[in-house]
Amino acid sequence: MIRLILLIVFFLAQQMVAQDFQGIATYSADRKMNIELDSTQVNSEIQKQIQEMMRKQFQKSYTLRFNKTESVYKEEKRLGATQPTLGIQVMVAGSGASDILYKNSKEKRFVAQRDMLGKIFLVKDSLTHYDWKLENETKKIGNYTCYKATTRRTFQQRTSVSTNDDDSTEDIETEEEITITVWYAPEIPVNSGPATFWGLPGLILEANDGQQSMLCSKIVLNPKKKIEILEPTKGKIVSESKFEEIMEKKMKEMQDRRPNREDGNNMQIRMRE
After folding, report:
1. d(CA 89, CA 87)
2. What is the DSSP secondary-structure string of 144-158?
3. Is 39 exposed, middle or buried (0-12, 13-18, 19+ CB in 10 A)?
4. Which of 9-18, 67-76, 166-175 has the highest mean pLDDT?
5. 41: helix, coil or strand?
6. How many angstroms separate the CA atoms of 66 and 190, rounded?
7. Which residue, 43, 63, 116, 204, has fewest beta-carbon neighbours within 10 Å?
8. Rg of the chain's alpha carbons, rounded to an integer?
9. In terms of DSSP bridges, do strands 119-126 and 236-238 run parallel, antiparallel, or are they unpaired?
């Protein structure tokens, strides 16, 4: 019943808005960090510093420019962003400040411009299918009444940790089924959202996958100046699976070429965003 009511509300809202309905939403993103390192090599205080530095690295701001069928999601530039120290090298796959994600819900496709170590790729593929379960629970985000929706996905992450003791590297892979929880606003009749999320009767204003959270902090609807939503065109065209393959290969090459530290305090952490 709740699904039917929401779809009716979404349909009526779509009929009431102009054909050029558009807006800009700003999201704040944060990542939960829970990295456990060998206590015989890294004491608890250093571990806390590492986690805090990495947590700050993943605190980012994004903008989503959207109309009724298209959107562009891009990271806002940060001033004074620094890389972790303490002999730590962090490699994050699939993320960059110059990356652009274009989504077209009408055609159910996306185009992602991604920078891999200075080489630009243009990833073209179908939008991820989310089997959303519409819940009865609601809450306010800003001035909007938002409804809860959930789905289950398989989450994969690989963490690579190395020390100079024997010049070896250990790759730790985890795979688990997680619950993704989002909150969407039927008052904003677009079926888009932050990152790859889409497919609900209203703009997604908050999303949490258990590791990363994204919250809309500002939204401007129908600004006086028309918003340009342009599909990226720069880069070598590849499918999503091909880009994943290239990314794994490049990260392995970086790992093999890493400099050795004589003090035995060389650590490399590889993550997927």
Report:
1. 7
2. EEEEEEEEEEEEEEE
3. exposed
4. 67-76
5. coil
6. 8
7. 43
8. 21
9. parallel
